[in-house]
Amino acid sequence: MKKKQNVMIKGTKEGLTLHLNDQCSFEELKQELEEKLTAHYPETEDTPLITVNIQTGNRYVTPQQTEELKDIVRQKKKLVVDEVSSNVMAKSDVEDLLSQRNIHTLAGIIRSGQVVEAPGDLLIIGDVNPGGTVLAVGNIFVLGSLRGIAHAGIEGNHQAVIVASKMVPSQLRISDCLNRAPDRFDDGDQLEMECAYIDETNQIVVDRLQVLKHLRPNITSFKGGR
After folding, report:
1. What is the pLDDT of residue 112?
2. pLDDT of amino acid 149
3. What pTM was computed for the model?
4. For residue 148, what pLDDT is reported?
């Protein structure tokens, strides 16, 4: 009977993809990986650098095991690891991901000196007073007056938006873009909710809330309406 291969190597336009068996022991996997790389990829001075992606299938690999796999590939000086991917995640990683996708709700006034931060989207039911600060990894929604500082997408999400019933902030930030309360922000009558987003010129723009339907069609998974 032909022995099942624990390591399958496929060439792509980007380099090599290593498909690793997720049923064998990790020690068997490492041994075969080292043997195959040595047998199939002898190095010479003229050998070009090759990018390698490692796919571990349904095997969860710890950070230490990930480094062990990378080290085996790196022993071949012409092979460079680009990514190690798996179909499974640690429970803690899943919980972090879910928390980032949740909307964290706070009812009340954010007063001067108060800082509120959320790992996902943030919904404030109330005002954000001058001197108050709201931060979110995702989007920020204020059902009230936004007069303080709002920073959405704090981990680099340029698609994040800021929405407020009354948009009169002292400062708006989205990802690494900053808008220091331009002249259009005044205390006059604002008849409809507004949103702030990063446009194609990498500037923060404030517009009617209705534009989000076209600019950020995936901002909600709600089905229905027109």
Report:
1. 96
2. 96
3. 0.56
4. 96
Query: Among positive and negative, which fits the CA dihedral 26, 32, 36, 42?
Result: positive
Q: Where are the domains of the chain?
A: 7-85, 95-215
From 24, 19, 101, 15, select the one nearest 52 (Cα to Cα): 15
Residue 68 has phi, psi (to 5 degrees) of: -65, -40
**Contacting residues for 168 by C-beta, under 8 A, at least 6 apart:** 145, 146, 147, 185, 186, 187, 190
The per-residue pLDDT for 181 is 56
Whether domain 95-215 has CATH 3.40.30.10: no
Fold of 7-85: Transcription Regulator spoIIAA (3.30.750)
Q: How far is CA 157 from CA 67, 139, 198, 208, 215, in A?
A: 28, 9, 10, 21, 15
DSSP assigned state of 69? H
Query: What's the pLDDT score for residue 221?
Result: 44
What are the residue ranges in the chain where pLDDT is below 70?
1-3, 42-45, 89-101, 180-191, 219-226
Start-to-end CA distance of the chain, whole Å, equals 61
In this structure, are strands 162-167 and 177-179 parallel, antiparallel, or unpaired?
unpaired
